[in-house]
From TrEMBL:
Biased composition (Polar residues): 335-350
Region annotation Disordered: where it falls in the sequence: 324-350
Record-annotated HTH luxR-type domain positions: 261-326
Name of the protein: Helix-turn-helix transcriptional regulator
Residue ranges of the TM segments: none
Species the sequence originates in: Streptomyces indiaensis
InterPro entries: Sig_transdc_resp-reg_C-effctor, TrmB-like, Tscrpt_reg_LuxR_C, WH-like_DNA-bd_sf
A Pfam match: GerE
Length: 350
């Protein structure tokens, strides 16, 4: 925030101070408030929660809670996207420096041998599987995974089932993130039924590339596009960073047992709203399909239905219709607290 209000009100729109909460609540209930009522809480104007009434500049009218919620969700989405980019940059930089081959003193070499290298390149599926099996055997408490793409093939699920069952037998808890499309795969539902309460699954419109974290001490990520190479990461700073990225995605994700939220627009599904938001960002069909875990053909079918529903005769007109309908932001998440009109004496969205 800028101006004198930043020192007195160091917060965002998701956590108003008590005074700001009272004034904004009053404005929402009554439709507007006198400008003098907002003078003690300049944060409301700085955060664009209140703005001048064009018919009478001595009064302020509130920004709707729904618009504020959309703004908050978009900021969170941008923050997670920036985190994903920084992960890639951090791994590339550390791998570069590790490859310089700086000499290691004997004492340091012994310590490294005991803990394992901070970054190890696993070339070939056999080495990847062996390293994963070793990490599985050493795991005692928790596994976090991100599984991108669409519907999981039963062969993929069966491949890791022996490790998952071994973890379950030792009381290890697992949390898995998938894309929303994975909800439609019978193989995943069967896998989760077999695992019982040992696994908790949530879904998002799109997730980062594949990630597997064991006990917050060792992580595995792909090192090439066809996943025949992987990186085994043990550096504490990298692990902490990846855990933070996972937890933020987890907070935004929707439990697999919960339905996807309605878009609030008749004839437009949650997936079509996700496609609309990516179209508004200027992405091509193939990129959108990859990010959402669907085929290009399915993506284009959704775009055609979206155009028909919004009455758009061209891609250019579709972009305008998407903006007019308010579909150019991220879809609402059932796991994200929404900004609602509070009762008297209550706090705004927390």
């Amino acid at each position: 925030m800028a101006g004198h209000g930043a020192d007195e009100h160091p917060h965002g729109a998701d956590r108003l101070c008590d005074a700001g909460d009272r004034v904004y609540s009053r404005a929402v209930r009554r439709g507007r408030v006198p400008r003098r009522d907002a003078e003690p809480v300049p944060c409301l104007l700085e955060l664009a929660l209140l703005h001048p009434d064009p018919d009478d500049m001595d009064w302020l009218v509130p920004t709707s809670p729904q618009e504020v919620m959309t703004r908050l969700l978009r900021a969170m989405h941008d923050e997670v996207s920036a985190s994903q980019r920084r992960v890639g940059s951090a791994v590339a930089a550390v791998e570069w420096y590790a490859g310089l081959g700086s000499p290691v003193r004997p004492a340091e070499s012994a310590a490294s041998a005991a803990e394992g290298p901070a970054i190890r390149v696993l070339d070939g599926l056999a080495r990847i599987q062996a390293a994963m099996d070793e990490a599985t055997q050493a795991c005692t408490a928790e596994v976090l995974t991100v599984q991108p793409g669409g519907i999981r093939r039963e062969a993929e699920l069966s491949e890791g089932l022996h490790r998952a069952m071994s973890l379950r037998g030792r009381g290890v808890r697992m949390r898995d993130l998938y894309t929303h499309v994975a909800r439609h795969g019978q193989g995943l539902l069967t896998y989760l039924e077999l695992m019982g309460d040992a696994v908790e699954a949530r879904t998002l419109d799109e997730v980062i590339d594949r990630l597997i974290l064991f006990d917050r001490t060792v992580a595995f990520i792909p090192a090439n596009t066809d996943r025949t190479m992987a990186l085994e990461l043990r550096h504490p700073a990298l692990i902490e960073y990846l855990v933070t990225v996972f937890e933020r995605l987890w907070r935004l994700a929707i439990p697999l047992t919960a339905p996807l939220p309605e878009t609030g627009i008749e004839g437009i599904s949650h997936r079509e709203q996700s496609i609309a938001a990516l179209l508004a960002e200027g992405h091509q069909d193939a990129v959108i399909a990859e990010r959402l875990g669907i085929s290009v053909r399915t993506c284009r079918a959704h775009i055609a239905r979206l155009s028909e529903t919004l009455g758009a005769a061209s891609r250019t007109q579709l972009g305008v219709r998407i903006a007019q309908a308010g579909l150019d932001g991220p879809p609402p998440s059932a796991a994200t607290p929404s900004l609602s009109v509070p009762d008297q004496g209550s706090r705004t969205a927390r």
